[in-house]
Write a structure and sequence with these properties.
alpha+beta; ACT_dom; 13 helices; eight-stranded antiparallel β-sheet; 445 residues; single chain; 18 strands
């Protein structure tokens, strides 16, 4: 009852202080500026970043402050082509979504973003990665007359996680029959354990008629499967660089991340901090020459900074893993064709028969058309040969399957300038947007 009262009080407080969203295309020469002011609670930052990330907008800079009961963020964003956001429908969507009560105080979904749906049945899979695992999963679903309407698969540090949305092939409706669901779980679990030969870790399969925010759920599944502590030691200078230090005089833990920039990078790091129950009180994000710099001043939800070396090391490992999970290593292929039952099973079987393994995949359907993206490498880890690419394009169709990116084709070297200090950006921000909390952390630099 006390929890309900607290929730109702929070809603009342928010109604008296509704969020304000300002979207400005004049303030910055090369980006659209989104400013969000709202009542603060744990998870607010993630929800705002999630809305921007779901539109595939690129966050070039961000300034974060959430001291006390108020949340104030500024994001400089562009579309994927580097242009300002000028589409009135997208601007209106951002404004109405971020100002809606459902965004900040959802009444149906739980802490992992689950809401009921009548559109599909959701399958969650985690287990040990191996060549051909997605092909086996798709073959089982095809044999059970299940149609895959959308899916996303990530692999990292020998682990695999996938969220697959299916419908009944003949009817196109969600699968609700309990006996059929049990059969699906049993057969998929057998696939994940490779017929019982994979005993390093237990596989997990879950089937439900629910809808999740798929990418956040994948992070949670990988984190729950402890993919962050089963990798080999990384060579110095390779991959993301994460440091965690103390700002003892002000009671903050300072987290600094440097990595190659990419779409949804900020979502991945903020998602991890939120799910590990850390609160970002201040922060900044900057990107330049394809390099990203992120700086956060955090505490645990109980108000305390990190106070042990073990916790510090675990946070570093988890943030590195969050960045690496979505890193696109391998040949990127895009499939566009008319949807049909069993299509995904056929495509993944062709990849497998040509000695390719799927590192990451995103499957979607829109109006009867399939739009799938696959990141592939040879099972041996070697670059995919040109003749192999030609062979699978011939089997699937030259116009249907396109090469979007081949990292094994050498490009001209890209320059990478060093990032400026984080407080340079924070200082400039608070000159224009004064906030008392900034004076508290400035002495920690």
């Amino acid at each position: 009852m006390e929890m309900d009262n607290d929730d109702e009080y929070a809603k009342l407080f928010r109604r008296m202080n509704p969020p304000r969203v300002v979207i400005d295309n004049e303030a910055c020469e090369n980006a659209t500026v989104i400013r969000v002011d709202s009542v603060n609670r744990h998870g607010t930052l993630l929800e705002v970043v999630q809305v921007i990330a779901d539109l595939n907008l690129v966050i070039k800079k961000a300034y974060i402050s959430s001291d006390g009961s108020w949340f104030m963020d500024v994001f400089n964003v562009t579309d994927c082509a580097g242009n300002k956001v000028t589409d009135k429908k997208i601007i209106s969507y951002i404004q109405t979504t971020l100002e809606s009560e459902e965004c900040f105080y959802p009444t149906i979904r739980n802490s992992i973003g689950i809401v009921p749906t009548t559109e599909h049945t959701s399958i969650e899979l985690t287990g040990t990665d191996r060549p051909g695992i997605m092909s086996d999963v798709c073959a089982v679903l095809a044999n059970l007359k299940c149609n895959v309407t959308s899916a996303e698969l990530w692999t990292h540090n020998t682990r695999v996680a996938a969220v697959v949305h299916i419908t009944d092939g003949p009817t196109g409706k969600p699968i609700r029959d309990e006996n059929r669901i049990l059969d699906i779980k049993k057969l998929l679990c057998n696939v994940l354990t490779n017929g019982g030969t994979n005993n390093v870790r237990s596989a997990h399969t879950d089937v439900s008629v629910v809808m999740t925010h798929r990418e956040r759920r994948l992070h949670q599944m990988m984190y729950g499967d402890r993919d962050f502590d089963c990798g080999e030691s990384r060579e110095e200078g390779c991959g993301p660089n994460v440091t965690v230090s103390d700002c003892a005089e002000r009671g903050y833990t300072v987290v600094i991340l440097r990595s190659k920039d990419r779409v949804k990078l900020l979502f991945d790091t903020v998602c991890t901090l939120t799910d590990m129950e850390y609160v970002v009180y201040h922060g900044m994000v900057s990107t330049e020459n394809d390099e990203a710099y992120q700086e956060y001043y955090i505490r645990h939800v109980d108000g305390n900074p990190i106070n042990s070396e073990a916790e510090r090391e675990r946070l570093i490992q988890c943030l590195e893993a969050a960045i690496e999970r979505r890193t696109s290593e391998g040949l990127e292929l895009e499939l566009r064709t008319e949807d049909r039952v069993g299509l995904l099973s056929d495509i993944t079987r062709i990849f497998r028969e040509n000695g390719l393994t799927i590192k990451r995949a995103k499957v979607s359907t829109d109006g009867g058309e399939v739009v799938d993206t696959f990141y592939l490498s040879e099972a041996s880890g070697n670059p995919v040969e040109a003749k192999t690419i030609e062979m699978i394009q011939t089997q699937i169709g030259q116009q249907v399957l396109q090469v979007k990116h081949n990292p094994f084709v050498k490009n001209s070297d890209k320059s990478s300038d060093e990032q400026g200090a984080g407080f340079f950006f924070l200082g400039n921000f608070f000159k224009h947007y004064p906030f008392p909390g900034f004076q508290l952390i400035r002495s920690c630099s």
